[in-house]
């Protein structure tokens, strides 16, 4: 095991120097400590080490000086020396924050996994709301080949810092490795089970190999014919491959097995609206909206259907509600496109032009995203199935 992300470690050490220094008040007259701290924060690690060595020599009982010297030595690749000073800091002040964090990273660099994890766990006890020790605990477990042990601390780190890209990257990697390990184990236990066919179908789907995905879901259904979820996934694959009648049949079977299932009704209604069976689609959508009023995609298709039925004001209300609910990225441009048509029908030309402008902007923005990423960040009933481009319809 090794800590491979040098840039991440460097940025972390720079960021944590100040936090460690704040755990104990700095003596204003201690020029060496002040200069060492400033050098550490500025990335001048050799200078920092020299100044901090002076500070430790003059005030060996100062735990902050010991921690910051350990941090500087860690950045210079002197893990053994860093461990020595970090342990001294902990011996002086057992509850000092930051010391166990650096100590865990130092042990990790020396391939001492048990010691690294123990130190990082201690830091999470001292600073339970700091995402960094949770993240590093996950990194250590992940790079030691134990992704199943990495998921819990990385999940905790993500709860504390939901927008931290480093945390999200490592968390995704850990969960992905655990998932693939589970799939591999399933194939060993029973390679012909419906579970294995379903997983293989899902993996083909993620790779946009819809023909292969359909075949796997069909095999899964042969083995488990009363599982409504399998029909939902099969219907989605038929839809993605433009086999709308087969998709409708799969969703109808799902609804038969799971009466009043809002997802099945929504998926059937989408196809009804898009194949000019407007009355049937609207009937289903109104049932969905009656029980699930927080899904923007439902209101989008409701607006689409109402407009096709000639109910312009109802269409406007549904589409404006969909927009106000901040729909997923794939759906946003389509909402604007349909709003532009409704506004034009109502003679609101300026509003229509604004909607067209926003539609164009959102389309360009989505084009910069990887299709799988775009799909992954979308949510709602079947949102990944919403076409990326808005089909032309006659008013």
UniProtKB/TrEMBL annotation:
Signal peptide stretch: 1-21
SUPFAM superfamilies, per the entry: TPR-like (SSF48452)
TPR repeat feature ranges: 63-96, 97-130, 131-164, 194-227, 228-261, 296-329
Gene3D superfamilies reported for this sequence: Tetratricopeptide repeat domain
Keywords assigned by UniProt, alphabetized: Repeat, Signal, TPR repeat
Keyword Repeat in annotation: yes
Keyword Signal carried by entry: yes
Any one biological process term the GO annotation gives: protein O-linked glycosylation via mannose
Molecular function via GO: mannosyltransferase activity
InterPro entries recorded: O-mannosyl-transferase_TMTC (IPR052346), TPR-like_helical_dom_sf (IPR011990), TPR_rpt (IPR019734)
Protein's recorded name: Tetratricopeptide repeat protein
């Amino acid at each position: 095991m090794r800590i491979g992300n040098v840039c991440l470690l460097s940025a972390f050490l720079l960021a944590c120097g100040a936090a460690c220094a704040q755990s104990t008040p700095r003596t204003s007259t201690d020029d060496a400590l002040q200069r060492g701290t400033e050098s550490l924060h500025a990335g001048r690690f050799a200078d920092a080490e020299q100044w901090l060595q002076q500070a430790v020599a003059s005030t060996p009982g100062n735990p902050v000086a010991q921690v910051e010297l350990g941090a500087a030595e860690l950045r210079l690749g002197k893990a053994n020396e860093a461990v020595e000073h970090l342990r001294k800091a902990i011996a002086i002040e057992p509850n000092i924050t930051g010391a166990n964090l650096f100590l865990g990273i130092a042990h990790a660099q020396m391939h001492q996994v048990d010691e690294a994890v123990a130190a990082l766990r201690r830091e999470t006890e001292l600073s339970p709301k700091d995402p960094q020790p949770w993240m590093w605990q996950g990194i250590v477990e992940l790079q030691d080949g134990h992704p199943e042990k990495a998921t819990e601390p990385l999940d905790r780190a993500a709860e504390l810092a939901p927008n931290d890209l480093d945390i999200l990257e490592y968390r995704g990697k850990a969960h992905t490795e655990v998932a693939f390990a589970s799939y591999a184990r399933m194939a060993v236990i029973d390679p012909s089970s419906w579970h294995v066919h379903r997983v293989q179908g899902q993996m083909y789907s993620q790779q946009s190999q819809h023909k292969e995905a359909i075949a796997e879901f069909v095999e899964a259904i042969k083995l488990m014919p009363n599982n409504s979820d399998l029909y939902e996934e099969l219907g989605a694959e038929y839809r993605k491959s433009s086999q709308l009648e087969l998709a409708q049949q799969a969703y109808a079977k799902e609804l038969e097995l799971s009466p009043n299932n809002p997802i099945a009704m929504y998926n059937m209604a989408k196809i009804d609206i898009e194949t000019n069976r407007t009355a049937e689609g609207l009937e289903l959508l109104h049932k969905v909206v009656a029980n699930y009023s927080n899904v923007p995609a439902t209101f989008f298709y409701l607006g689409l259907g109402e407009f096709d039925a000639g109910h312009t004001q109802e269409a406007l209300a549904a589409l404006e509600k969909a927009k106000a609910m901040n729909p997923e990225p794939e759906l946003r441009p389509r909402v604007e496109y349909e709003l532009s048509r409704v506004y034009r029908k109502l003679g609101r030309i300026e509003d229509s032009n604004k909607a067209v402008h926003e539609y164009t902007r959102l389309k360009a923005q989505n084009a910069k995203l990887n299709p799988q990423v775009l799909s992954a960040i979308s949510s709602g009933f079947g949102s990944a199935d919403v076409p990326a481009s808005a089909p032309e319809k006659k008013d």
